[in-house]
Amino acid sequence: MNGLDLLNIPLIELNKELFKRGDFDFITITERGNNVKQQEAFKALLSGDVREILYGGAAGGAKSWTGATYFTFMALLYPGTRYFVGRDKLTDLRNATLSTFQKVFKTYGVHYVAGAKGSPPEDVDWVEYREKDHYLEFSNGSRIDFIALRFLPTDKMYERFGSFEYTQGWIEEAGEVNFGAYDVLKSRIGRHLNDKYGLRPLLFITCNPKKNWLYYEFYTPWKRKTLSAKRMFIQAFVQDNPANESTYLEQLQSLNDKVKKERLLFGNWDYDDDPAALCEFDAICDMFTNAHVIAKGEKRISADLAMHGRDRFIIGAWTGMVVTIPVDKPLAKGKEIETDLKKVMVARATPHSKTVVDSDGLGAYLESYLVGIKEFHGGSRAINIKDYGNLKSECAFTLAAKINNREIRVICTEEQKQKIIEELGVLKRIDVDKDEAPKKILQKKDMKELLGRSPDYMDMLIMGMYFEVYRPRKGSTAA
How many domains does the chain have? Predict the structure, then answer.
């Protein structure tokens, strides 16, 4: 093909061919330089065995541009395919994500039909946004659906996505998105023309650092080098993207809020700007190195019980504010729980009256055999009913205060440490903006949504505060 022929080829046709060949320079290279992280992301998106790619980790890394460009060219190259891009709110998709798509169309030569004004041109690749049903329709029959991923109390299992069938998908600003939406959407990709075109069921995820399922499912395993071979995390910073406006880095550097600056400029996942969080992240980490907290004082036991098929059976053995975990197992029978608890009580010289267990039915069972142990009813009245909504919330706030004041030391394995850090990260207050309301913590079912598992270590630590908040009067019984 000579130079004259090339000049007569439409820009979009040249770009489609380059993209199909895996030559992404026309996207990643600008007059200011090459975005190497973006190159890495496109290569992973177009080849290999990875099924889930998390891209981002700081502001300004070209996350949205990468997603919009990738799905635009996939829709153009593979007629009839279907994709989704999801965010928490539909308004954010229309106001922000659609705007990015429109810039991509203009940059790479895709004819965008704005509204329903006239007929689209013939023999030209075009795309139109169908505002009523919220999707981008391409001239070759492909489409990209815009879907709202907000958690709805009337649809806790995200059944509204149950009949959707997509080729691939993109979760944008995933820090705002509930774990349940992510979990369900994984099952909706790879179901539309994938075999015909030899396409993987690929889920692309973009985000800034956030202490939710992204942290536990991707960032922590990546940091430990245990991330599944089917997953990839590409951490991109503002400095990686030469296409940013020249003042953007300066704007991030000028942020006064320390947490926002850590997250958005430095891509630090270990800072949480959630005002509902009870525990400071640094204080949680210090729990495991607080050597100044001496194992001295009253011996106590707090146990989170579990029968076969239910969460974990965990015993915390306390001496003052130092706690160890002598029992930690996933499966246990009633008699085994009773035996293990007795052994720890004897070995630690801990009386029945200083042992507390959760009251999910097993507590009552154990109390009949271990007379005098305390049965923890988290939903019962708080001791300080003016300030707290229930006993568990009062114990949780007491625990958080001691953690933040560096008054607790936890001695455990590295694996237990990581799980405790994760679980205390979802110890949050509800109705944080209601100053007059009694303090309550996030419900356990919501914590499970965020973690993807039950917060059993945290429950054991919360119950350990029972004896700190409960001072039985003469003749009274345990709460």
Answer: 2
285 and 260 together in one domain: no
- The rounded distance, in Å, linking the Cα atoms of 461 and 441 is 14
What is the pTM for the complete model shown? Answer: 0.69
Q: Are residues 415 and 302 in the same domain?
A: yes
Asked if 211 and 293 sit in the same domain, the reply is no
Mark whether 289 and 260 lie in a shared domain: no
Residue-level pLDDT at 434: 64
- Tokens at 199, concatenated: 């396409």
Residue 88, in any domain of the structure: yes
Residues 173 and 211 in one domain: yes
The whole domain housing 127 covers: 9-264
Whether 1 is in a domain gets the answer no
Same domain as 463, residue 330: yes
272 within 8 A of 431, measured Cβ to Cβ: no
The widest CA-to-CA distance across the chain, in whole angstroms, is: 99
Between vectors from CA 169 to CA 163 and to CA 174, what angle results, nearest 5°? 105
Question: How remote is the C-alpha of 113 from its chain's centroid?
Answer: 36
Q: For residues 219 and 418, is the Cβ–Cβ distance under 8 A? A: no
Which DSSP letter does residue 231 get?
Answer: E
Structure tokens at 11: 């820009």
The CB-based long-range contact list for 156-165 (8 Å cut-off, 24+ gap) reads: 156/180, 157/184, 158/183, 158/184, 158/185, 161/185, 161/188, 164/84, 164/188, 165/82, 165/191, 165/192
**63-77 and 11-21 helices cross at what angle (nearest 10)?**
100
Contact 206, 123 (CB under 8 A): no
321-375 pLDDT, tens per residue? 999 999 998 866 777 888 899 999 999 999 999 999 987 645 455 655 677 888 8
In 10 A of CB 433, how many CB atoms? 7
Residue 257 and residue 302 share a domain:
no
Dist CA 240 CA 440 (whole Å): 42
Taking the C-alpha atoms of 319, 312, 290 and 258 in order, what is their torsion angle to the nearest 10 degrees?
-140
